[in-house]
Amino acid sequence: MLRVPWYVAWPLALAVIYGGLAFLARRSVFYPMKYPGGLWDLQSECRASDVWLQTPDGIRLNAWWAAPAGARLVTLFLHGNAGNVTHRFAVLQEIPAAGSAVLVPDYRGYGRSSGRPTEKGLYTDAETAYEYLLHTGWQPRQIVIQGESLGTAVAIELATRRPCAGLVLEAPFTSAKDVAGTVIPFLGPLLISGFDSRSRIAGVHAPVLFIQGDRDEVIPLRLGQALFKAAPEPKSFWLLHGASHNNIHEVGGAEYIQTLKAFYGTFSAERAPTSQ
Length: 276
Fold this sequence. Notes:
This protein is α/β, with parallel strands linked by helices. The chain has a single domain (about 5-265), classed as 3-Layer(aba) Sandwich (Rossmann fold). It has helices at about 5-25, 40-45, 90-100, 120-135, 150-160, 175-185, 190, 220-230, 250, 255-265, and strands at about 30, 50-55, 60-65, 75-80, 80-85, 100-105, 145-150, 165-170, 210-215, 235-240. The chain has an 8-stranded mixed sheet with strand order 2-3-6-4-7-8-9-10, sandwiched between helices. Strands 1-5 form a two-stranded parallel sheet. Strand 7, helix 5 (about 150-160) and strand 8 form a beta-alpha-beta unit. The longest helix is centred in the first third of the chain and has 22 residues, at about 5-25. The termini are far apart.
């Protein structure tokens, strides 16, 4: 039997264990729900229509579109890492109620969208949706980019490269590494990297609205506050007392709509395209 010296075996074993943990950690970033999983019957209740997008790398994305009559703004809503577009039915009602049309794309690998999610892929998906809005007649000064949880990192990355009227960040964080460190101290940051919003947010040149609950059990409030500190002016922070990571809309209620409406009022836009 071949004997491996301990000074070789132990580092090899540790490398294998680390590699396995790192692989599982990277996979844990995304929790997509593929069709038919989800709440697809809610589409008609949201008065949302299907939009199909084609990315430059050949991925077909499904998105839901909803618009109030006479909307002067459009919101590109980039959702979090779990579920799919059907679980964002609240924003498909509340954002139009605040006065903005809204496009909610499912990332690659989510819902009816093809492909497999990756950090680079999500950035491509967001830019594809942004380009769709331009091609259908919207101007950059009419586009609000809004992100939720993991989607805040995608929104910030897009906003550093493409102009927009404003940026809304729900339950934002500084980086994936920082979030991992709150889950598994010391080891977590060694396993996960990427989605580095802290290093990017200085490149945003638009008003930014931060929204976070003071009982967020997934992303500690201090990470949202640290990102807010790093963000350029103009910026504002709406702290929802009693809200956790997944119930911002329920706790915010009518105030959520009013807060968005007030934010929209800080910049002006021309009348929206007549067709979509």
